[in-house]
Protein backbone atom coordinates (compact mmCIF):
# COMPACT_ATOMS: atom_id res chain seq x y z
CA UNK A 1 0.00 0.00 0.00
CA UNK A 2 1.39 3.45 -0.87
CA UNK A 3 2.83 5.34 2.04
CA UNK A 4 0.87 8.51 2.95
CA UNK A 5 2.67 11.69 2.00
CA UNK A 6 3.04 14.38 4.61
CA UNK A 7 2.40 17.94 3.60
CA UNK A 8 4.81 20.68 4.56
CA UNK A 9 2.39 21.86 7.21
CA UNK A 10 3.37 19.26 9.80
CA UNK A 11 2.48 21.76 12.51
CA UNK A 12 -1.07 21.99 11.14
CA UNK A 13 -1.29 18.20 11.10
CA UNK A 14 0.01 17.96 14.66
CA UNK A 15 -2.48 20.54 15.87
CA UNK A 16 -5.40 18.95 14.03
CA UNK A 17 -4.61 15.50 15.41
CA UNK A 18 -4.11 16.91 18.91
CA UNK A 19 -7.61 18.40 18.68
CA UNK A 20 -8.98 15.06 17.43
CA UNK A 21 -7.16 13.10 20.13
CA UNK A 22 -8.84 15.11 22.88
CA UNK A 23 -12.08 13.34 21.97
CA UNK A 24 -13.13 10.07 23.55
CA UNK A 25 -11.78 7.21 21.47
CA UNK A 26 -13.48 3.84 21.84
CA UNK A 27 -10.47 2.11 20.28
CA UNK A 28 -8.67 3.03 23.49
CA UNK A 29 -11.47 3.31 26.06
CA UNK A 30 -14.31 0.75 25.89
CA UNK A 31 -17.63 2.51 25.24
CA UNK A 32 -19.70 0.75 27.87
CA UNK A 33 -23.40 0.06 27.53
CA UNK A 34 -24.49 3.55 26.45
CA UNK A 35 -21.51 4.89 24.50
CA UNK A 36 -22.48 3.71 21.02
CA UNK A 37 -25.31 5.19 18.99
CA UNK A 38 -26.14 6.93 15.72
CA UNK A 39 -27.80 10.14 16.93
CA UNK A 40 -24.52 12.07 17.33
CA UNK A 41 -23.30 10.94 13.93
CA UNK A 42 -26.52 11.89 12.20
CA UNK A 43 -26.53 15.33 13.79
CA UNK A 44 -22.88 15.87 12.86
CA UNK A 45 -23.37 14.88 9.22
CA UNK A 46 -26.47 17.06 8.96
CA UNK A 47 -24.48 19.98 10.36
CA UNK A 48 -21.79 19.63 7.67
CA UNK A 49 -24.20 19.36 4.77
CA UNK A 50 -24.74 15.60 4.54
CA UNK A 51 -21.68 14.63 2.46
CA UNK A 52 -22.72 10.96 2.67
CA UNK A 53 -26.09 11.48 1.02
CA UNK A 54 -26.29 9.99 -2.45
CA UNK A 55 -22.86 8.37 -2.16
CA UNK A 56 -22.87 4.83 -3.61
CA UNK A 57 -21.44 2.57 -0.90
CA UNK A 58 -20.37 -0.99 -0.21
CA UNK A 59 -20.59 -1.50 3.56
CA UNK A 60 -18.57 -4.26 5.26
CA UNK A 61 -18.88 -5.60 8.82
CA UNK A 62 -17.59 -8.72 10.55
CA UNK A 63 -15.17 -9.96 13.18
CA UNK A 64 -12.37 -11.23 10.96
CA UNK A 65 -11.43 -10.37 7.42
CA UNK A 66 -13.41 -7.18 6.94
CA UNK A 67 -10.33 -5.03 6.25
CA UNK A 68 -9.00 -7.52 3.70
CA UNK A 69 -12.43 -7.74 2.07
CA UNK A 70 -12.69 -3.95 1.86
CA UNK A 71 -9.22 -3.79 0.30
CA UNK A 72 -10.14 -6.45 -2.27
CA UNK A 73 -13.43 -4.83 -3.27
CA UNK A 74 -11.80 -1.40 -3.54
CA UNK A 75 -8.92 -2.76 -5.65
CA UNK A 76 -11.32 -4.51 -8.03
CA UNK A 77 -13.41 -1.38 -8.50
CA UNK A 78 -10.28 0.70 -9.07
CA UNK A 79 -9.12 -1.74 -11.74
CA UNK A 80 -12.55 -1.34 -13.35
CA UNK A 81 -11.92 2.39 -13.73
CA UNK A 82 -14.04 3.61 -10.82
CA UNK A 83 -12.83 6.42 -8.59
CA UNK A 84 -13.00 4.67 -5.23
CA UNK A 85 -13.01 5.96 -1.67
CA UNK A 86 -11.87 3.45 0.95
CA UNK A 87 -12.34 3.75 4.70
CA UNK A 88 -10.54 1.30 7.01
CA UNK A 89 -9.78 0.98 10.70
CA UNK A 90 -7.61 0.82 12.64
CA UNK A 91 -4.45 2.11 11.00
CA UNK A 92 -1.03 0.55 11.51
CA UNK A 93 1.59 3.18 10.69
CA UNK A 94 -0.27 6.47 10.15
CA UNK A 95 -3.82 7.72 10.50
CA UNK A 96 -3.83 8.67 6.81
CA UNK A 97 -4.04 4.95 5.96
CA UNK A 98 -7.67 4.95 7.04
CA UNK A 99 -8.93 7.26 4.30
CA UNK A 100 -7.84 6.56 0.73
CA UNK A 101 -8.91 7.45 -2.80
CA UNK A 102 -7.87 5.16 -5.64
CA UNK A 103 -5.57 3.26 -3.28
CA UNK A 104 -3.60 6.32 -2.14
CA UNK A 105 -3.89 7.36 1.50
CA UNK A 106 -5.18 10.86 2.05
CA UNK A 107 -2.43 13.48 2.03
CA UNK A 108 -1.83 15.15 5.37
CA UNK A 109 -2.93 18.54 4.07
CA UNK A 110 -6.23 17.07 2.87
CA UNK A 111 -6.76 15.31 6.19
CA UNK A 112 -6.23 18.61 8.01
CA UNK A 113 -8.65 20.33 5.62
CA UNK A 114 -11.33 17.68 6.16
CA UNK A 115 -10.97 17.89 9.95
CA UNK A 116 -11.13 21.68 9.80
CA UNK A 117 -14.29 21.42 7.69
CA UNK A 118 -16.11 19.46 10.41
CA UNK A 119 -14.59 21.22 13.43
CA UNK A 120 -17.08 24.11 13.76
CA UNK A 121 -20.01 21.70 13.68
CA UNK A 122 -18.30 19.39 16.18
CA UNK A 123 -17.72 22.24 18.61
CA UNK A 124 -21.33 23.41 18.31
CA UNK A 125 -22.50 19.88 19.07
CA UNK A 126 -20.07 19.72 22.00
CA UNK A 127 -21.59 22.86 23.47
CA UNK A 128 -25.15 21.62 22.99
CA UNK A 129 -24.30 18.24 24.53
CA UNK A 130 -22.62 19.90 27.52
CA UNK A 131 -25.78 21.88 28.24
CA UNK A 132 -27.69 18.58 28.39
CA UNK A 133 -25.02 16.88 30.46
CA UNK A 134 -24.14 14.68 27.51
CA UNK A 135 -21.17 14.10 25.24
CA UNK A 136 -20.29 15.44 21.82
CA UNK A 137 -19.08 13.42 18.85
CA UNK A 138 -16.42 10.76 19.47
CA UNK A 139 -12.99 10.43 17.86
CA UNK A 140 -14.24 7.84 15.38
CA UNK A 141 -17.41 9.78 14.56
CA UNK A 142 -15.40 12.91 13.77
CA UNK A 143 -12.93 11.00 11.61
CA UNK A 144 -15.74 9.21 9.79
CA UNK A 145 -17.43 12.54 9.05
CA UNK A 146 -14.09 13.88 7.78
CA UNK A 147 -13.81 10.83 5.50
CA UNK A 148 -17.23 11.56 4.00
CA UNK A 149 -16.22 15.19 3.46
CA UNK A 150 -13.02 14.11 1.72
CA UNK A 151 -14.82 11.60 -0.50
CA UNK A 152 -17.32 14.27 -1.52
CA UNK A 153 -14.54 16.75 -2.34
CA UNK A 154 -12.62 14.06 -4.25
CA UNK A 155 -15.79 13.24 -6.22
CA UNK A 156 -15.46 9.50 -5.76
CA UNK A 157 -17.78 7.27 -7.78
CA UNK A 158 -18.22 4.79 -4.94
CA UNK A 159 -16.94 4.25 -1.39
CA UNK A 160 -16.10 0.98 0.37
CA UNK A 161 -16.53 1.37 4.13
CA UNK A 162 -15.39 -0.86 7.00
CA UNK A 163 -17.29 -0.64 10.27
CA UNK A 164 -15.27 0.32 13.32
CA UNK A 165 -17.03 -1.62 16.10
CA UNK A 166 -20.01 -3.92 15.61
CA UNK A 167 -22.29 -2.56 12.93
CA UNK A 168 -25.78 -1.69 14.12
CA UNK A 169 -24.63 1.34 16.13
CA UNK A 170 -21.36 2.01 14.32
CA UNK A 171 -20.73 5.52 13.01
CA UNK A 172 -20.50 4.22 9.43
CA UNK A 173 -24.04 2.81 9.61
CA UNK A 174 -25.65 6.00 8.33
CA UNK A 175 -25.46 4.96 4.69
CA UNK A 176 -27.84 3.07 2.43
CA UNK A 177 -25.42 0.77 0.64
CA UNK A 178 -25.71 -0.79 -2.78
CA UNK A 179 -24.61 -4.02 -1.10
CA UNK A 180 -23.72 -5.02 2.45
CA UNK A 181 -21.06 -7.61 3.23
CA UNK A 182 -20.68 -9.56 6.47
CA UNK A 183 -17.42 -11.45 6.88
CA UNK A 184 -16.72 -14.26 9.35
CA UNK A 185 -18.04 -13.80 12.88
CA UNK A 186 -16.34 -14.97 16.06
CA UNK A 187 -16.00 -13.89 19.68
CA UNK A 188 -14.48 -10.42 20.11
CA UNK A 189 -15.37 -7.17 21.93
CA UNK A 190 -17.74 -9.25 24.03
CA UNK A 191 -18.14 -6.62 26.76
CA UNK A 192 -19.68 -4.30 24.15
CA UNK A 193 -21.25 -6.54 21.51
CA UNK A 194 -22.40 -9.41 23.68
CA UNK A 195 -21.06 -12.68 25.11
CA UNK A 196 -22.31 -15.05 22.40
CA UNK A 197 -21.87 -15.53 18.67
CA UNK A 198 -25.59 -14.91 18.16
CA UNK A 199 -25.49 -11.57 19.99
CA UNK A 200 -22.40 -10.45 18.10
CA UNK A 201 -23.95 -11.54 14.80
CA UNK A 202 -27.03 -9.45 15.55
CA UNK A 203 -24.83 -6.37 15.92
CA UNK A 204 -22.96 -7.11 12.69
CA UNK A 205 -26.22 -7.83 10.82
CA UNK A 206 -27.39 -4.36 11.83
CA UNK A 207 -25.80 -3.02 8.62
CA UNK A 208 -28.32 -4.91 6.48
CA UNK A 209 -30.75 -2.44 4.91
CA UNK A 210 -34.27 -3.02 3.66
CA UNK A 211 -34.31 -4.22 0.07
CA UNK A 212 -30.54 -4.04 -0.36
CA UNK A 213 -28.58 -7.24 -1.11
CA UNK A 214 -26.22 -8.75 1.43
CA UNK A 215 -23.32 -11.17 0.98
CA UNK A 216 -22.42 -13.18 4.08
CA UNK A 217 -19.37 -15.22 4.97
CA UNK A 218 -20.65 -16.12 8.44
CA UNK A 219 -20.34 -19.89 8.77
CA UNK A 220 -20.99 -20.45 12.49
CA UNK A 221 -24.52 -21.92 12.70
CA UNK A 222 -25.73 -19.33 15.21
CA UNK A 223 -24.35 -16.47 13.14
CA UNK A 224 -25.87 -17.87 9.94
CA UNK A 225 -29.30 -18.07 11.54
CA UNK A 226 -29.15 -14.49 12.78
CA UNK A 227 -27.93 -13.08 9.48
CA UNK A 228 -30.56 -15.04 7.52
CA UNK A 229 -33.36 -13.94 9.84
CA UNK A 230 -32.29 -10.29 9.66
CA UNK A 231 -32.08 -10.40 5.87
CA UNK A 232 -35.52 -12.00 5.66
CA UNK A 233 -37.09 -9.37 7.93
CA UNK A 234 -35.59 -6.60 5.83
CA UNK A 235 -36.41 -8.28 2.52
CA UNK A 236 -32.76 -8.20 1.59
CA UNK A 237 -31.56 -10.79 -0.93
CA UNK A 238 -28.95 -12.94 0.84
CA UNK A 239 -26.01 -14.73 -0.72
CA UNK A 240 -24.57 -17.09 1.89
CA UNK A 241 -21.13 -18.71 1.74
CA UNK A 242 -21.50 -22.48 1.65
CA UNK A 243 -25.10 -22.32 0.47
CA UNK A 244 -25.21 -19.98 -2.52
CA UNK A 245 -21.51 -19.85 -3.37
CA UNK A 246 -18.32 -21.64 -2.41
CA UNK A 247 -14.70 -20.62 -1.88
CA UNK A 248 -12.05 -23.30 -2.27
CA UNK A 249 -8.50 -22.26 -1.31
CA UNK A 250 -5.80 -22.96 -3.87
CA UNK A 251 -2.12 -23.48 -2.99
CA UNK A 252 0.61 -21.05 -3.94
CA UNK A 253 2.40 -21.67 -7.17
CA UNK A 254 5.14 -24.31 -7.00
CA UNK A 255 8.42 -23.00 -5.63
CA UNK A 256 6.90 -19.73 -4.44
CA UNK A 257 7.95 -20.25 -0.80
CA UNK A 258 6.18 -21.24 2.45
CA UNK A 259 4.34 -17.93 2.94
CA UNK A 260 3.50 -17.11 -0.66
CA UNK A 261 -0.09 -16.11 -1.42
CA UNK A 262 -2.29 -18.77 -2.92
CA UNK A 263 -5.56 -18.47 -4.77
CA UNK A 264 -9.26 -19.23 -4.63
CA UNK A 265 -11.74 -21.15 -6.72
CA UNK A 266 -15.15 -19.44 -6.60
CA UNK A 267 -18.39 -21.10 -7.65
CA UNK A 268 -21.30 -18.68 -7.63
CA UNK A 269 -25.01 -19.30 -8.18
CA UNK A 270 -24.81 -18.30 -11.86
CA UNK A 271 -21.48 -20.00 -12.64
CA UNK A 272 -21.47 -22.99 -14.97
CA UNK A 273 -17.99 -23.86 -13.66
CA UNK A 274 -15.72 -22.61 -10.88
CA UNK A 275 -13.62 -19.52 -11.58
CA UNK A 276 -10.02 -19.40 -10.34
CA UNK A 277 -8.20 -16.31 -9.08
CA UNK A 278 -4.69 -15.68 -7.70
CA UNK A 279 -4.51 -13.59 -4.54
CA UNK A 280 -2.12 -10.97 -3.21
CA UNK A 281 -2.60 -11.76 0.48
CA UNK A 282 -1.35 -14.89 2.22
CA UNK A 283 -3.48 -17.47 4.04
CA UNK A 284 -6.28 -19.92 3.32
CA UNK A 285 -8.69 -17.57 5.08
CA UNK A 286 -8.08 -14.99 2.34
CA UNK A 287 -9.89 -17.30 -0.07
CA UNK A 288 -13.17 -16.66 1.74
CA UNK A 289 -12.52 -12.92 1.91
CA UNK A 290 -11.80 -12.87 -1.83
CA UNK A 291 -14.96 -14.83 -2.60
CA UNK A 292 -17.01 -12.33 -0.60
CA UNK A 293 -15.43 -9.54 -2.65
CA UNK A 294 -16.25 -11.34 -5.91
CA UNK A 295 -19.88 -11.91 -4.89
CA UNK A 296 -20.25 -8.29 -3.76
CA UNK A 297 -18.86 -7.00 -7.05
CA UNK A 298 -21.22 -9.25 -8.98
CA UNK A 299 -24.10 -7.68 -7.04
CA UNK A 300 -22.80 -4.27 -8.11
CA UNK A 301 -22.68 -5.45 -11.73
CA UNK A 302 -26.39 -6.25 -11.52
CA UNK A 303 -26.97 -2.65 -10.46
CA UNK A 304 -25.27 -1.23 -13.53
CA UNK A 305 -21.66 -0.81 -12.37
CA UNK A 306 -19.38 -2.12 -15.11
CA UNK A 307 -16.71 -4.45 -13.71
CA UNK A 308 -15.00 -6.64 -16.34
CA UNK A 309 -13.68 -10.02 -15.27
CA UNK A 310 -10.11 -8.87 -15.85
CA UNK A 311 -10.62 -6.15 -13.21
CA UNK A 312 -11.51 -8.84 -10.67
CA UNK A 313 -8.40 -10.81 -11.62
CA UNK A 314 -6.10 -7.79 -11.30
CA UNK A 315 -7.76 -6.41 -8.18
CA UNK A 316 -7.54 -9.61 -6.16
CA UNK A 317 -3.89 -10.04 -7.13
CA UNK A 318 -2.82 -6.56 -6.02
CA UNK A 319 -4.98 -6.10 -2.90
CA UNK A 320 -2.74 -5.93 0.18
CA UNK A 321 -2.78 -4.45 3.67
CA UNK A 322 -0.07 -4.08 6.33
CA UNK A 323 0.05 -6.46 9.30
CA UNK A 324 -1.82 -9.25 7.55
CA UNK A 325 0.75 -12.07 7.63
CA UNK A 326 3.20 -9.46 6.40
CA UNK A 327 6.79 -10.56 5.86
CA UNK A 328 9.01 -7.63 6.85
CA UNK A 329 12.40 -9.37 7.03
CA UNK A 330 14.02 -12.54 5.66
CA UNK A 331 17.06 -13.07 7.96
CA UNK A 332 15.56 -13.85 10.32
CA UNK A 333 12.14 -14.33 8.81
CA UNK A 334 9.93 -11.76 10.60
CA UNK A 335 6.18 -11.99 10.11
CA UNK A 336 3.83 -9.32 11.49
CA UNK A 337 0.15 -10.09 11.90
CA UNK A 338 -2.57 -8.20 13.74
CA UNK A 339 -4.29 -11.38 15.00
CA UNK A 340 -6.15 -10.13 18.05
CA UNK A 341 -8.74 -12.73 18.95
CA UNK A 342 -8.85 -16.49 19.33
CA UNK A 343 -10.07 -17.26 15.82
CA UNK A 344 -7.52 -15.02 14.10
CA UNK A 345 -4.70 -16.41 16.24
CA UNK A 346 -5.67 -19.96 15.26
CA UNK A 347 -5.73 -18.93 11.60
CA UNK A 348 -2.30 -17.31 11.91
CA UNK A 349 -0.69 -20.38 13.50
CA UNK A 350 -2.22 -22.64 10.86
CA UNK A 351 -0.99 -20.39 8.03
CA UNK A 352 2.52 -20.28 9.48
CA UNK A 353 2.90 -24.07 9.67
CA UNK A 354 5.08 -24.46 6.53
CA UNK A 355 7.37 -21.63 7.68
CA UNK A 356 7.47 -22.94 11.25
CA UNK A 357 8.59 -26.31 9.91
CA UNK A 358 11.39 -24.72 7.87
CA UNK A 359 12.91 -22.40 10.50
CA UNK A 360 14.59 -22.83 13.90
CA UNK A 361 14.43 -21.36 16.42
CA UNK A 362 10.88 -19.97 16.30
CA UNK A 363 10.08 -16.94 18.44
CA UNK A 364 6.65 -15.52 19.29
CA UNK A 365 6.57 -11.81 20.14
CA UNK A 366 3.23 -11.14 21.80
CA UNK A 367 1.22 -8.31 23.34
CA UNK A 368 -2.53 -7.81 23.49
CA UNK A 369 -5.31 -5.76 24.97
CA UNK A 370 -6.46 -6.80 28.40
CA UNK A 371 -10.06 -7.40 27.30
CA UNK A 372 -9.04 -10.15 24.83
CA UNK A 373 -9.06 -13.91 25.38
CA UNK A 374 -5.32 -13.85 26.01
CA UNK A 375 -4.98 -17.21 27.71
CA UNK A 376 -6.95 -18.96 24.96
CA UNK A 377 -5.03 -17.13 22.21
CA UNK A 378 -1.70 -18.24 23.63
CA UNK A 379 -2.91 -21.82 24.12
CA UNK A 380 -3.40 -22.03 20.34
CA UNK A 381 0.34 -21.37 19.95
CA UNK A 382 1.41 -24.21 22.24
CA UNK A 383 4.08 -26.32 20.55
CA UNK A 384 4.52 -23.92 17.64
CA UNK A 385 7.28 -21.74 19.15
CA UNK A 386 10.57 -22.43 20.90
CA UNK A 387 10.84 -19.05 22.62
CA UNK A 388 8.47 -16.27 23.64
CA UNK A 389 8.94 -12.53 24.19
CA UNK A 390 6.17 -10.45 25.76
CA UNK A 391 5.87 -6.70 26.06
CA UNK A 392 3.34 -3.92 26.53
CA UNK A 393 2.52 -1.28 23.93
CA UNK A 394 2.16 2.32 25.06
CA UNK A 395 -0.35 3.81 22.63
CA UNK A 396 -3.40 2.13 24.14
CA UNK A 397 -4.27 2.02 27.84
CA UNK A 398 -6.18 -1.22 27.26
CA UNK A 399 -2.85 -3.06 26.85
CA UNK A 400 -2.48 -6.07 29.12
CA UNK A 401 0.25 -5.94 31.74
CA UNK A 402 3.35 -8.04 31.19
CA UNK A 403 2.56 -9.81 34.46
CA UNK A 404 -0.68 -11.10 32.99
CA UNK A 405 1.05 -12.06 29.74
CA UNK A 406 3.74 -14.00 31.61
CA UNK A 407 1.11 -15.83 33.67
CA UNK A 408 -0.91 -16.57 30.53
CA UNK A 409 2.16 -18.03 28.78
CA UNK A 410 2.79 -20.32 31.72
CA UNK A 411 -0.86 -21.38 31.88
CA UNK A 412 -0.84 -22.09 28.13
CA UNK A 413 2.23 -24.32 28.38
CA UNK A 414 4.46 -22.04 26.30
CA UNK A 415 8.20 -21.65 26.95
CA UNK A 416 9.04 -19.31 29.82
CA UNK A 417 8.74 -15.83 28.27
CA UNK A 418 11.32 -13.07 28.24
CA UNK A 419 10.00 -9.60 29.05
CA UNK A 420 10.93 -6.47 27.08
CA UNK A 421 10.20 -2.90 28.12
CA UNK A 422 8.58 -1.86 24.84
CA UNK A 423 7.82 -3.27 21.36
CA UNK A 424 11.04 -2.06 19.63
CA UNK A 425 13.16 -3.62 22.37
CA UNK A 426 11.01 -6.74 22.19
CA UNK A 427 11.62 -7.05 18.46
CA UNK A 428 15.37 -6.60 18.91
CA UNK A 429 15.35 -9.32 21.57
CA UNK A 430 13.23 -11.65 19.43
CA UNK A 431 15.53 -11.15 16.44
CA UNK A 432 18.59 -11.93 18.53
CA UNK A 433 16.94 -15.09 19.85
CA UNK A 434 15.93 -16.21 16.36
CA UNK A 435 19.31 -15.64 14.72
CA UNK A 436 19.68 -15.43 10.96
CA UNK A 437 17.95 -18.75 10.26
CA UNK A 438 15.07 -18.47 12.69
CA UNK A 439 11.56 -17.04 12.60
CA UNK A 440 9.91 -14.25 14.56
CA UNK A 441 6.13 -13.94 14.62
CA UNK A 442 4.75 -10.63 15.91
CA UNK A 443 1.10 -11.06 16.93
CA UNK A 444 -1.66 -10.06 19.32
CA UNK A 445 -2.73 -6.54 18.34
CA UNK A 446 -2.78 -3.84 15.69
CA UNK A 447 -1.19 -1.60 18.32
CA UNK A 448 1.75 -3.99 18.72
CA UNK A 449 2.13 -4.17 14.93
CA UNK A 450 2.30 -0.38 14.84
CA UNK A 451 4.79 0.01 17.68
CA UNK A 452 7.36 -2.57 16.59
CA UNK A 453 8.25 -0.05 13.90
CA UNK A 454 8.68 -2.32 10.87
CA UNK A 455 6.86 -2.70 7.59
CA UNK A 456 6.68 0.95 6.57
CA UNK A 457 7.07 1.99 2.98
Q: Total number of β-strand segments?
A: 17
- Looking at this structure, what is the CATH superfamily of the largest domain? Mur-like, catalytic domain
Helix content: 25-40%
Poorly predicted regions: none
Q: Choose one word for the global shape.
A: globular
Strand fraction equals 5-15%
Gyration radius over CA: 21 Å
Count of runs of 4 or more consecutive helical residues: 15
| Main β-sheet, spatial strand arrangement | 4-3-2-5-1-6-7-8
- Report the average pLDDT across residues: 94
Main beta sheet: 8 strands, mixed
Give the structural class: alpha/beta
Please state the second-level CATH architecture of the largest domain: 3-Layer(aba) Sandwich
Q: Can you offer a commentary on this structure?
A:
The protein has two domains: 309 residues, UDP-N-acetylmuramoyl-L-alanine:D-glutamate ligase (3-Layer(aba) Sandwich), CATH 3.40.1190.10; 126 residues, Protein-Tyrosine Phosphatase, Chain A, CATH 3.90.190. It has 457 residues and is of the alpha/beta class. The chain is built from 15 helices and 17 strands. The longest helix has 24 residues. Helix content is 40%, strand content 15%. Helix 13 links the parallel strand 15 and strand 16. Strands 4-3-2-5-1-6-7-8 form an eight-stranded mixed sheet, with helices on both faces. The radius of gyration is 21 Å and the shape is globular. The model has no long low-confidence stretch (mean pLDDT 94).
Amino acid sequence: MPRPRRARGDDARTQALAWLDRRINFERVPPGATGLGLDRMRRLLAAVGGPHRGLPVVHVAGTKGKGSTVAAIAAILEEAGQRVGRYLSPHVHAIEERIAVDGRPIESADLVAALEAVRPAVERLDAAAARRGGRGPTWFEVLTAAAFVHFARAKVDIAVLETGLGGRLDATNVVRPLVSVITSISLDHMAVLGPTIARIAAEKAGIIKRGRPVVSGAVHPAARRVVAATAARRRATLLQLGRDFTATPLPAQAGAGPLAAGGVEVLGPADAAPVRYRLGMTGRHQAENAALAVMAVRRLQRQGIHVPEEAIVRGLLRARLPARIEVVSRRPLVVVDAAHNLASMATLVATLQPALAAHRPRVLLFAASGDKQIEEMLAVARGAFDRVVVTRYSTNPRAATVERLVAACRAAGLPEPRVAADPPQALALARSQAGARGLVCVAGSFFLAAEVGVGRG
